[in-house]
Amino acid sequence: MKRVVVFIKQVPDTAELKIDPVTNTMIREGVPSIINPFDMYAIEEALKIKDKWGDTETVVMTMGPPQADAALREAISMGIDKGILLSDKKFAASDTWATSYILSKAVEKLGDFDVLIAGKQATDGDTAQVGPGVATWLKIPSVTYVRKIDELEPGHAKVERMRSEGFDIIEVKGKFLMTVLKELNEPRIPSFRGKMAAKKAEIPVWGADDLNTDEANIGFTGSPTRVVKAFTPPPKKGGIKVEGDDLETVKGVFKFIKENHLA
Amino acid sequence: MSTKNKILIIGECRESSIHHVTFELVSEGAELSKKNNGEVVVLVPGYKIDTAQTEGLFKAGADKVILLDHEKLQQLNDVHYLRNIAAVINEEEPGIVLAGATPQGRSLMPKLAITMKAGLTADCTELDIEEGTGLLLQTRPAFGGNLMATIKTPKHLQMSTVRPKVFKVETGYSKEKNITKFTYIDGDSPLKIIEAVRSIEEMVNLADSDIIVSGGRGLGDKANFKVVFDLAAKLNAAVGASRAAVDAGWISYAHQVGQTGTTVMPKLYIALGISGAIQHQVGMKSADYIIAVNKDSNAPIFNVADYGIVGDLFEIAPKLTELLG
Ligand SMILES: Cc1cc2nc3c(=O)[nH]c(=O)nc-3n(C[C@H](O)[C@H](O)[C@H](O)COP(=O)(O)OP(=O)(O)OC[C@H]3O[C@@H](n4cnc5c(N)ncnc54)[C@H](O)[C@@H]3O)c2cc1C
Ligand SMILES: Nc1ncnc2c1ncn2[C@@H]1O[C@H](COP(=O)(O)O)[C@@H](O)[C@H]1O
Asked: Whole-angstrom distance between the N-terminal and C-terminal Cα of chain A?
């Protein structure tokens, strides 16, 4: 059997994000969690690969607190076969270096695979580091910013990587990891059957002992980076607002551009 | 001078030309090196590199330039790039490594960070040296700019990717022209770039532009995007779009600004017929100046616009294009 593994992250829904006007910090309470939007395209692509290949197991994995279970079930409701939660107090405060180590250990425990898929980036951290990081731990190549898949068979792929001045067509030999963009597909809506499967699914929880992780590589101790300070930038306020579309009004904005040396 | 103070810049070539972000990083590196008593070394990987441009690197503040010129680096083959950049890092033993937060930097640096056991901070918008410790303080936006975080790497190699267009290029340094060559190390690659498709049509350059003119659903259809392109052409600007415009098929995804598109930080962002949904805002509200044109005076885009015009974009944009003559 072939296998495709997708990495997903549960993130706060930024659309609901609010800033406390007094303390100027983010209010997280009551903010709903969603699957990181880019990861939805990763899930859909895994399902498409299974549709095409047949005889394929699709697996989603997430490292996070116990409530991240909900994200895995949502993926199963879309048609993913199996969800695995990587959760352990020892994993807490892992940065992208430690997170990619833990995810790679989970892939090793899972066994063989053909393709790994991650989102381009998570909307909370916005780092885009975890996907390529996992690939490096597993000693396989990665292709970032995949916008189109021309060919994909176990052991062989031809994909398009987006660049700012065009795109690269890349041929890949062997197993690899790709990070994907919205342009790739349209995530499907969960089916009734999928929702039933999600309800019933057994989600294994793997901790540090199950993964045989090296303490020196996980959590706070295993993370090279330290957050020294977090602050909210002053909220952007609306400035000048005028009404009308006659030449005089437009001259106003023209003057604004010139006065601020913007053009 | 301890190598811990050495700042290595991973440069970038587009075709044979050294990309602007490399010069920006060199100047910022030179600024940092004044505080940590260090030196700035620039690695320029590429093929048929335009060596005349190295002059500009020294004027921008470089102490040493390492050229890594090889046919196999003509395209961005990650495996060939990584093998060689890792070798240069091992040889130079810098304390700090900086690269542009471009597709190239953001593809290579996460992989280097793993193999080097380095702390990597993505997409920095501010860098400083901590007094006393000499550590690099890296400030970056998270949660789509709703939060800023300052990060440091106390015990390991310190690496960052830095947003293009954040730092200014200096031209006033008069450094000795110390240029060396690094001999390309060959090896196998499971990746092969079959074709690098580059065309005016595909040219988007949202991240590299000082000005972006974006269009939204208010444009009504594909043909009307002409008003956006006309204004952009006058301003020498890149063209952006809301997701609604992309989903409607009026313009390609590469132009999409926002949470599921590209995050941009231009000097000036002009939004035409865009309501300013939160997912759009997180991708553009860090622009220095925002101008918005919308018929609806309640559109949320006006909450972040420095200059808002309530009116018809089909009247306003062409008139502005005309005035810019
Ligand atoms: C998970 C998720 C991710 C998303 N990611 C993104 C993203 O990355 N980028 C993004 O942009 N959106 C994103 N969205 C979508 C976002 O929520 C909005 O739906 C989208 O930004 C709306 O685009 P718009 O402003 O062009 O369209 P609308 O909201 O329809 O606004 C069109 C505006 O044009 C104005 N208008 C109409 N005619 C004229 C005229 N003649 N002159 C002047 N004004 C006129 C109208 O008053 C209106 O305000 C995302 C949504 C979700 C759920
Ligand atoms: N905790 C996590 N668990 C599983 N996958 C993750 C996790 N964090 C990040 N990823 C994956 O890595 C991608 C990039 O995330 P980031 O590097 O945080 O921007 C995401 O889109 C996910 O596919």
From this structure: 59
**A193 CA to chain B: closest CA distance, Å?**
29
The terminus-to-terminus CA distance of chain B in angstroms comes to 54
Indicate the residue of A132, A143, A238 with minimum beta-carbon distance to B304: A238
Extended strands (E) in B182-302: 191-198, 211-215, 238-241, 268-272, 289-294
Crossing angle of the two packed helices B103-115 and A96-110, in degrees rounded to 10? 70
Ligand 2 centroid–CA B276 distance in Å is: 27
Q: Per-residue DSSP letters for A60-119?
A: EEEES-GGGHHHHHHHHHHT-SEEEEE--GGGTT--HHHHHHHHHHHHHHH---SEEEEE
Taking CB atoms and an 8 Å limit, are B190 and A243 in contact across chains? no
Q: Does A187 touch chain B (CB under 8 A)?
A: no
**ipTM, two decimals:** 0.92
Each residue's pLDDT tens digit, A103-141: 999 999 999 999 999 999 999 888 999 999 999 999 999
Alpha-carbon torsion, ordered B301, B263, B233, B18, to 10 deg: 160
At residue A143 the predicted structure's pLDDT band, cuts being 50, 70 and 90, is very high
- A26 has a pLDDT exceeding 70: no
Residue type (1 letter), B131: E
B286-306 per-position pLDDT tens digit: 899 999 999 999 999 999 999
Domains in chain A and their CATH numbers? 2-222 (3.40.50.620)
Residue ranges of chain B with per-residue pLDDT less than 50: 1-2
User: How do residues B187-218 score in pLDDT, each as one tens digit?
Assistant: 999 999 999 998 766 778 888 889 999 999 99
A130, A142, A144, best to mutate for ligand 2 pocket (most atoms within 8 Å of CB): A130
The stretches of A128-189 forming alpha helices (DSSP H) are: 130-137
pTM: 0.93
> Cβ–Cβ of A136/B114 closer than 8 Å?
yes
The CA–CA distances, whole Å, from B281 to B79, B103, B231, B253 equal 36, 22, 21, 17
Nearest partner of B72 among B60, B88, B63, B84, judged by Cα: B84
Ligand nearest to the Cα of A15, by number: 1
User: In percent, how much of chain A has pLDDT > 70?
Assistant: 97
- What are the tokens at A212? 């045989």
Q: What is the residue with the minimal CA distance to atom 9 of ligand 1?
A: B258
φ/ψ of residue B107, rounded to 5: -90, -40
Q: Which two tokens stand for residue B220?
A: 């009504």
**Gap between the Cα atoms of B54 and A77, Å rounded:** 56
Strand-strand pairing, A142-153 and A176-180: parallel
Q: Which among B76, B80, B134 has a CA at the least distance from the CA of B105? A: B76
Question: How far apart (Å, rounded) are the C-alpha atoms in residues B2 and B37?
Answer: 9
List domains and CATH numbers for chain B: 3-181 (3.40.50.620), 211-324 (3.40.50.1220)
